[in-house]
Predict the structure.
Amino acid sequence: MLERLNQAMEHIDTHLDQSIDVAELARIAVTSEYHLRRMFSALAGTPLSEYIRRRRLTVAGAEVLAGRESLLEIAVRYGYSSGEAFARAFRAMHGVGPGEARRTGSTLVSQPRLSFRLTVEGSSSMRYRIVNRPAFTVVGLKARVPLVHTGPNQAIIDFVRGIDPRTLERLEKLSDQEPQGIVAVCDDLDPSRAEGTELDYYHGVTTSAAAPEGTTALAVPAGTWVVFTTSGPVPQAIQELWRDVFTEWFPSNPYRSRSGPEILRTRLSPDNTEADAELWLPVERQQG
């Protein structure tokens, strides 16, 4: 998988002055477009689209300083419709406009070309199981919240605090399948998974029952799931689990993520500082 990702990185670098089709990158990596975006974001710590943009502006910056072509010619080559659009993007990355950079020989910012390699760290084994499930329903309360990669998600905290405990008691009685009890469900995430992009958050249960009045239902089709378990401090252990799933487990196993909700069951310690967690991710087996 890592070798194929590196081939996709090579394709990006040789086509920076052309349109780059993410579907073609996924074909090179022998995976789905959805999984490629997820995998890249987890491994690189930045969305794929942002990496491509920064690589283009890095190469364009070198050409600006070289002074062999006009700024407009460079702008058009790297996909900008006007000199003004190029100047805005250039300044956002480099902290200086292209004209000033050329006149003064300013120091610019460089986005290095990425390559991926496997590092063996001797970390503890990941605990997981594969589950084939029939269709089910998530029933609960829903909010649109921003994605937060590290640290508490205050929007989710505020939303959950505002739920009447009696409502949660009624919902918990509807739980009739795994994962049991109240769960956190994330759905409709932006493909880039960039920090601050929005997602649908459900606080509820997985059930075969109908949604009571005042709640929202999310129908989940039949499919395959990988289920991970972890224990540790909140929220670090859970966020580290998400990271390790995409940086360690997926590159080492014949599965890829597929579109669908991501379900987290958490059981907090009495002082709310530690948790046992179970993470359910929708997957499909890799072809070939």
